[in-house]
C-alpha cells in the first residue's frame, strides 16, 4: 500500500519548538484532520509535508513517484493565467493533454474556418482518447461548476478573492495525487459550497490531510485525527467526535499517572530522608531514580481561555432598522430591509458570497451610509466589531501594548478587576510571549489577539464577521461558551454551521432576490425545514396529464411480499445495528493497526448504507400500514 512515513521530524521557530521528534504515517484512503491551538505549527507541518518548507531534522519516506497536492490557506495565484491554465497546471501527461485540448477549442471558436486549427483540435482529441482523459475533463468542469467559478477562460486577475480561492481548491482536487493537503479549505466559502465539498471529500479515494476549524466538516469527512500539542503529535482513530472522547480519556489517564508518580516519589524521598540502611550500590541507584522522577514532566496543565469580560449596561432600546436599501455600482444588494434588535438577541446572517452580509454589518456599525431607509440606535449601545478583512493590529508593537492601548484593566460580570496581562494569559498568551512583537505571531494568534482587543472594549452589542476563520477549535469552543453568557446582543456573519448552531437562535438569510428572509431557529433547523419543504413540494405534471386526471385506487391490504417484509424489517434493522456496533467496537480495539482498521471502515460504510436504506423502507411501509388502518 502506497503511503508516506514520517520519522523523528523536528521544526523550531525562534526559541519555540513546533514539533519535537514526531513520527507518523499516512496511508491510502486515510482522511486525517490535523488540529491544535493556533501557533502550535499546524500550517508549518503541512508545508514541510508538501515540500514547501524544510524541517530542522527528520525523514519523509515515500515512493519516488509519490505525488502531493497542497492548498495554501491564502493561495497566491498568477493573475495573468486563465482559470483552466491554472487548474490544468503540471507536467503530468493527462494535464498537458487537457491544456492542449482546451487551448485548441478556444482558438477554433475564434476562427472556426481555419483548417490548421481544426487539425490541431483533431490531434488534441486523439491525445485525449489515447490517455482516456475525457472523464478527467468532465470531472474538472463539474468541480468548477459546483464551486461556483463563473468562467473557465477568465484571467485570474479578473476574479474576486472568493472566486480565486475556489479556483485554487479546484486545482487541488483535480490534480492526480497520492496525498491531498488542505489548509483551511472552508474559509471564505458559503454554506452550500462547504456542504458540497464535504460530500466530495468524504468519498475521496486518495489520502487526505486537512486543517479546518469547521467541526461538522471534521466529523463528516475524517476517519483519523492528529493533534499537535506542545511539540508532540497524538493520533486518534475515528472522527472529531471520537477524538473528543478519547482525548478526555487520555487526559484523565495522564492525571492518574501523575498522581501515582507523586505518591511513589513521596515514598522514595521519605525513604531517603529516613536514612534507611541499604547496600551502597542500591542506595546510589535509588537516589538516581528519585532525581530522574523529580525531572519527569506530565502534560496535565491545561491551557484555558476565560471570557468573563463584562459589558456596559444596555438599555431596552437597542436598534431599529426601517426600509433599508443599498446598491454598489448600480447593483442592488438589498431593499426594504427591516430589523428590530432587542436585548438578548442572537442573530446569524447567512447566504451566498457577495449577497451583502458584511455590507449590512458595516451599515449597522455606521461605517457606511444606506441609499434609503433609517437606522435608529439606542443611547446606551456600545458596539464591538470583529471584522473579517481589516484586522487593525500594528505589527511593530509588542503584544502587551496592543491590549493596554485598549484598556489597562477590565471589569468582569462579577465585578472583579482583571489587568491586561491577566487577560492575555487567559487568551493563551503567557507572560514570556506578551513582550514579543505582534509580527512574530502566527495568523491564528493574531486573530486571537484581535478578538481580545475587541472584547476588552466591554461592548454590549457584538458584530462578528466570520469569527471562526483562522481560529482553532479550542478557542472557538470557549468563545461559544462566552457568547452563551454574554449579556448583550450578538449578530454573527458566519459559514460555520456548528458555530451557528451553538450561538444563534434566529437567522437572517441573504437572498439574490434582495428580499431577505427571517427565520427563528438555528442553522440546522433552518436546513431541515428547507429539506422538508423540498420534499413536500408537489411535482407539477404536464398540462396534458393534468387535463385527464386518473384517480389512483386505494389499496385494501398489503401485498404478500409487502406483508412478509413488514413482519421482518424491524428485526433486520436491529441485526444491522448490532452488527454495526460490533464493527465500531472492532475499530476502537484495533488502535492504530491500519491493516485491521481499513477493512473494518469499509464494512462500517457498507452497513451504514444498508441501515439507511432499511430505515427509509420501514418509513414507507409504516405510512402504508397507517393508511390501511384508517380505511
Name the beta content range: 15-25%
The total strand number stands at 20
Strand order, main sheet: write it out.
5-6-7-3-8-9
Number of helices, counting only DSSP H or I runs of 4 residues or more: 21
Rg from C-alpha positions?
A: 30 Å
Structural class by secondary-structure content: alpha/beta
Shape: globular
Major β-sheet, in short? 6 strands, mixed
The mean pLDDT is 82
Uncertain segments are 303-307, 540-553
Helix residue percentage: 40-55%
Distance between the termini: 60 Å
Summarize the structure.
With 631 residues, the chain is of the alpha/beta class. 46% of the residues lie in helices and 19% in strands. Helix 3 (93-110) runs antiparallel to helix 4 (115-131).
Q: What's the topology here?
A:
Elements: E1 3-13, E2 16-27, E3 31-35, H1 42-50, E4 57-61, E5 68-71, H2 83-87, H3 93-110, H4 115-131, H5 134-146, H6 161-174, E6 179-183, H7 191-201, E7 207-211, H8 215-221, E8 224-229, E9 232-237, H9 240-274, H10 280-295, E10 319-328, E11 331-341, E12 346-350, H11 357-364, E13 372-377, E14 383-386, H12 399-406, E15 409-411, E16 417-419, H13 420-426, H14 431-434, H15 443-455, E17 461-465, H16 473-485, E18 489-493, H17 497-503, E19 506-509, E20 517-520, H18 523-536, H19 543-547, H20 560-590, H21 594-630
Parallel strand pairs: 3-7, 3-8, 5-6, 6-7, 12-18, 12-19, 14-17, 17-18
Antiparallel strand pairs: 1-2, 1-4, 8-9, 10-11, 10-13, 15-16, 19-20
Amino acid at each position: 500500500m502506497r503511503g508516506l512515513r514520517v520519522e523523528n521530524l523536528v521544526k523550531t521557530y525562534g526559541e519555540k519548538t513546533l514539533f519535537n521528534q514526531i513520527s507518523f504515517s499516512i496511508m491510502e484512503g486515510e482522511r486525517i484532520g490535523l488540529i491544535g491551538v493556533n501557533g502550535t505549527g499546524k500550517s508549518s507541518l503541512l508545508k514541510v509535508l508538501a515540500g514547501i518548507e524544510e524541517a530542522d531534522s527528520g525523514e519523509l519516506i515515500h515512493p519516488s513517484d509519490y505525488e502531493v497536492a497542497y492548498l495554501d490557506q491564502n493561495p497566491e495565484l498568477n493573475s495573468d493565467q486563465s482559470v483552466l491554465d491554472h487548474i490544468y497546471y503540471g507536467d503530468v501527461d493527462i494535464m498537458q493533454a487537457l491544456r492542449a485540448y482546451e487551448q485548441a477549442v478556444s482558438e477554433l471558436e475564434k476562427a472556426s474556418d481555419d483548417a490548421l486549427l481544426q487539425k490541431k483540435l483533431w490531434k488534441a482529441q486523439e491525445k485525449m482518447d489515447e490517455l482516456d482523459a475525457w472523464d478527467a475533463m468532465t470531472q474538472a468542469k463539474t468541480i468548477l461548476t459546483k464551486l461556483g467559478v463563473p468562467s473557465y477562460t477568465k484571467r485570474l486577475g479578473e476574479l474576486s478573492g472568493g472566486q480565486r480561492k475556489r479556483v485554487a481548491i479546484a486545482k487541488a482536487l483535480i490534480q492526480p495525487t497520492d496525498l491531498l493537503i488542505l489548509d483551511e479549505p472552508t474559509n471564505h466559502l458559503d454554506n452550500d459550497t462547504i456542504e458540497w465539498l464535504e460530500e466530495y471529500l468524504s468519498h475521496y479515494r486518495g489520502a487526505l490531510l486537512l486543517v479546518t476549524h469547521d467541526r461538522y466538516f471534521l466529523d463528516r469527512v475524517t476517519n483519523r485525527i492528529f493533534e499537535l500539542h506542545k511539540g508532540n503529535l497524538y493520533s486518534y482513530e475515528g472522527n472529531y467526535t471520537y477524538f473528543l472522547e478519547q482525548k478526555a480519556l487520555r487526559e484523565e489517564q495522564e492525571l492518574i499517572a501523575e498522581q501515582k508518580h507523586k505518591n511513589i516519589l513521596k515514598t522514595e524521598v521519605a525513604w531517603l530522608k529516613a536514612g534507611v540502611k541499604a547496600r551502597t550500590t542500591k542506595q546510589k541507584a535509588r537516589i538516581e531514580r528519585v532525581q530522574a522522577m523529580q525531572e519527569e514532566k506530565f502534560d496535565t496543565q491545561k491551557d484555558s481561555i476565560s471570557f468573563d469580560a463584562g459589558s456596559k449596561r444596555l438599555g431596552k432600546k437597542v436598534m431599529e432598522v426601517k426600509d433599508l436599501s443599498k446598491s454598489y455600482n448600480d447593483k442592488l444588494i438589498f431593499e426594504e430591509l427591516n430589523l428590530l434588535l432587542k436585548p438578548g438577541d442572537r442573530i446569524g446572517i447567512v447566504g451566498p458570497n457577495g449577497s451583502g452580509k458584511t455590507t449590512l454589518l458595516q451599515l449597522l456599525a455606521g461605517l457606511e451610509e444606506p441609499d434609503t431607509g433609517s437606522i435608529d440606535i439606542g443611547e446606551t449601545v456600545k458596539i464591538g466589531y470583529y471584522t473579517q478583512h481589516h484586522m487593525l493590529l500594528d505589527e511593530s508593537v509588542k503584544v502587551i501594548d496592543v491590549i493596554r492601548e485598549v484598556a489597562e484593566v477590565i471589569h468582569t460580570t462579577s465585578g472583579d478587576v482583571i489587568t491586561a496581562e491577566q487577560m492575555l494569559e487567559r487568551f493563551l498568551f503567557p507572560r514570556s510571549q506578551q513582550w514579543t512583537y505582534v509580527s512574530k505571531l502566527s495568523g491564528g494568534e493574531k486573530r486571537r489577539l484581535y478578538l481580545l482587543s475587541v472584547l476588552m472594549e466591554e461592548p454590549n452589542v457584538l458584530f462578528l464577521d466570520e469569527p471562526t476563520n483562522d481560529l482553532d477549535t479550542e478557542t472557538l469552543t470557549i468563545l461559544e461558551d462566552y457568547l452563551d453568557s454574554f449579556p448583550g446582543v450578538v449578530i454573527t456573519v458566519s459559514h460555520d454551521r456548528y458555530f451557528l448552531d451553538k450561538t444563534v437562535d434566529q437567522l437572517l438569510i441573504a437572498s439574490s432576490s434582495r428580499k431577505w428572509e427571517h427565520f427563528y431557529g438555528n442553522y440546522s433547523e433552518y436546513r431541515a425545514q428547507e429539506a422538508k419543504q423540498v420534499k413536500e413540494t408537489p411535482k407539477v405534471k404536464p398540462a396534458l396529464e393534468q387535463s385527464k386526471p386518473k384517480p389512483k385506487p386505494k389499496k385494501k391490504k398489503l401485498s404478500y411480499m409487502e406483508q412478509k417484509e413488514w413482519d421482518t424489517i424491524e428485526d433486520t434493522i436491529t441485526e444491522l445495528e448490532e452488527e454495526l456496533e460490533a464493527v465500531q467496537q472492532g475499530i476502537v480495539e484495533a488502535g492504530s493497526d491500519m491493516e485491521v482498521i481499513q477493512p473494518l471502515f469499509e464494512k462500517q460504510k457498507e452497513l451504514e448504507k444498508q441501515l439507511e436504506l432499511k430505515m427509509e423502507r420501514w418509513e414507507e411501509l409504516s405510512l402504508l400500514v397507517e393508511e390501511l388502518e384508517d380505511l
